[in-house]
Design goal:
Radius of gyration of chain B: 22 Å
Mean pLDDT of chain B: 84
Mean pLDDT of chain A: 77
Strand order of the largest sheet of chain A: 2-1-11-10-7-8
Shape of chain B: globular
Largest sheet of chain B: 3 strands, antiparallel
Shape of chain A: rod-shaped
Strand order of the largest sheet of chain B: 1-2-3
Number of helices of chain B: 16
Distance between the termini of chain B: 20 Å
Order of helices and strands of chain A: HEEEEEEEEEEE
Structural class of chain B: mainly alpha
Radius of gyration of chain A: 26 Å
Number of helices of chain A: 1
Structural class of chain A: alpha+beta
Strand content of chain A: 25-35%
Oligomer: heterodimer
Number of strands of chain A: 11
């Protein structure tokens, strides 16, 4: 076996390339981890995926719940509606009247369910968007959530 | 450096690995140092480069590390399979080409992956149909007691590989809608908050499906993989550990009950608990020969391994079909072969690569903007990681050995194609997540 040293060298070369590659990829992962710890110091308890910032289940019973107008025809931007005890949005005879061609007469309802305030579409024609995602089934609202119906947009403040 | 240039640069190690690996195997087999290995390395690099160009054109912002990690895994797998049998390696190389074509097709056609959400029930049904396909008489095939393969004329494939992607897509889209309901909570029992009974519904259904899988296809590994992915998704969706605890409890209770009643699974458990029992070791059917030999091979590897082509796969008998010392070295036990020839360091590097793949997957989930993307990326990463856990855990006797493949490394067409689809989905999600807004 005259070529055995070459074979051994190739094996260690193989391992070296493998580990150098691994280190290179791991370095980026480490960078992510460091950034994560920095972020943790700034904002307490961020969630792993940031999927549900403040679910607040089983929280204190009656906090204030406000709907702030971002932009809506016929509403002053920045005006507030108290939805702590629920409200219906739509074009018809409801609590929050939308002068919006895309809104149905009974478009969506905001309701308090236990500790959470829940947004539900009432079978509208054009749909309700929660944070730019089409609402399917009732969804609890969190502070900062954006509700969009047609050209009208509101921000929820818990 | 832009993400795409970074990706391009990272493909070079893959080419180097193929070249070095093939050269070492050539030396071992024919005692000659041939420049043919350079050609193999170049062809491999060219293929990866082709896929890279397509990614560059369609997904400019996608994660730069995922594709190189896969290329490096594939080169390790290719070298190991070439070392077992050059004909197998040729077929495996063909499957990589098919896989890359499917990969390219997926990223070109499915740039708006949110359409998947619209077809979720169709996808779920397709996934379940794929899973039970091996039990359909006539086309189903039983391998070592488990029903995992399907034979359609000359083509045989393992439908569970594709089913795992379908089921993750379904679960991601389903949990996107129901996760908030699941967090609402129920009665408190001391410090523990119990979930409401009606919210246990989905968990019970998926648990039932996992148990059915166990009885139906008789494979503990796939069952664990699917249910584990579901629990991981449930945890990501609700961020509540109680679901995982309840789910794991249910799974192990069910698994314990069914292993006692389904003969094949019981055999696997016995072989796992005492592989060196002489009776089990000698047994022709459902014995512990595989797992015992796998442990011997790994122990033989030492820290740096015996070297490429040095592992003894068959007994020296002079004839064509000698008894195998390391059975199924190209599929189930490829990890044992890697440990034997590259040692603890080589095996640790391979595990590290998988770890990094999973890390990139969860990173994509963190960066993604909407709930479906987050759940999809997390679910795909979880099912991929669990698959590696099930097979490596099996080969190292951490859990009972079952027949799932090592993604991108094991020999097997359906595994490669399915995992390239998984990679394509992850890259598409990451492209949208990292795109500047």
């Amino acid at each position: 076996m005259a070529l055995e040293p070459v074979s051994v060298a190739l094996k260690f070369g193989f391992l070296a390339v493998l580990f150098l590659f691994l280190l290179w990829v791991a370095r980026s992962a480490l960078k992510d981890l460091r950034r994560q710890t920095d972020g943790r110091a700034a904002t307490p308890m961020p969630e792993a995926t940031g999927l549900h910032a403040a679910t607040g289940f089983g929280g204190d019973g009656d906090r204030h719940a406000l709907l702030v107008v971002d932009r809506a025809p016929g509403h002053e931007p920045g005006s507030r509606y108290d939805v702590s005890s629920g409200a219906t949005l739509g074009r018809g005879d409801v609590e929050i009247v939308l002068e919006d061609a895309f809104a149905s007469s009974q478009h969506a309802r905001i309701e308090r369910q236990g500790g959470a305030v829940v947004l539900e579409d009432l079978g509208s024609t054009n749909g309700t968007y929660l944070n730019d995602e089409l609402l399917r089934g009732p969804q609890p609202l969190h502070a900062g959530d954006r509700i969009r119906i047609g050209d009208s947009q509101f921000e929820f403040q818990g | 450096m832009s993400p795409r240039n970074r990706e391009l640069l990272a493909l070079i190690p893959a080419g180097l690995l193929v070249t070095a690996g093939f050269a070492a195997v050539f030396i071992q087999q024919d005692e000659l140092l041939s420049n043919v290995s350079l050609t193999y390395g170049a062809i491999f690099l060219a293929l990866c480069f082709g896929a890279h160009v397509i990614v560059r054109m369609t997904l400019p912002h996608a994660d730069p590390y995922l594709f190189p990690i896969v290329a490096v895994l594939a080169s390790v797998g290719l070298v190991m399979i070439y070392r077992i049998d050059d004909e197998l390696a040729r077929e495996q190389a063909q499957w990589y080409v098919v896989g890359l074509v499917v990969f390219a097709a997926t990223i070109v056609w499915l740039r708006d992956y949110t359409v998947l959400e619209r077809y979720r029930y169709t996808i779920a049904l397709a996934g379940i149909a794929l899973l039970v396909l091996p039990r359909v008489p006539g086309i189903g095939a039983q391998v070592n007691g488990a029903y995992l393969g399907v034979n359609l004329g000359p083509v045989s494939f393992q439908p569970a590989e594709l089913a795992k992607i379908a089921i993750v897509i379904f679960l991601a889209s389903y949990l996107r809608d129901t996760r908030q309901v699941l967090v609402q909570g129920g009665r408190r029992l001391g410090r523990v908050q119990l979930p409401r009974l009606k919210d246990l519904g989905p968990l019970l259904v998926v648990w039932g499906a996992a148990m059915l899988l166990l009885v139906f296809i008789r494979d503990l590994g796939s069952s664990l993989m699917f249910f584990g992915a579901f629990l991981a998704l449930l945890y990501v969706a609700t961020s509540q550990l109680r679901w995982v605890v309840i789910g794991l409890g249910m799974f192990f209770t069910g698994a314990w009950f069914f292993t006692a009643t389904v003969g094949h699974v019981q055999g696997r458990i016995d072989a796992w608990r005492d592989p060196f029992d002489p009776q089990l070791y000698e047994a022709k059917v459902s014995g512990s020969y595989q797992i015992a030999q796998s442990l011997f091979a790994q122990a033989d590897g030492g820290l740096f391994g015996t070297g490429f082509g040095q592992a003894q796969l068959t007994l020296p008998c002079g004839a064509e079909n000698c008894p195998r010392i390391l059975p199924a070295a190209d599929t189930d036990l490829i990890y044992a072969l890697i440990t034997n020839e590259l040692g603890l360091f080589g095996a640790a590097a391979v595990i590290g690569l998988y770890l990094m793949f999973a890390q990139r997957g969860f990173k994509i989930a963190m960066l993604a903007g909407d709930a479906f993307s987050k759940l999809l990326a997390a679910g795909l990463a979880a099912v991929f990681a669990l698959q590696v856990f099930v097979i490596v855990g099996g080969v190292t006797k951490l859990i009972p050995l079952t027949g799932v493949t090592m993604p991108f490394v094991s020999y097997g067409g359906s595994s490669i194609v399915a995992n390239f689809v998984l990679l394509a989905l992850l890259l598409t999600v990451s492209n949208r997540a990292r795109a500047p807004r």
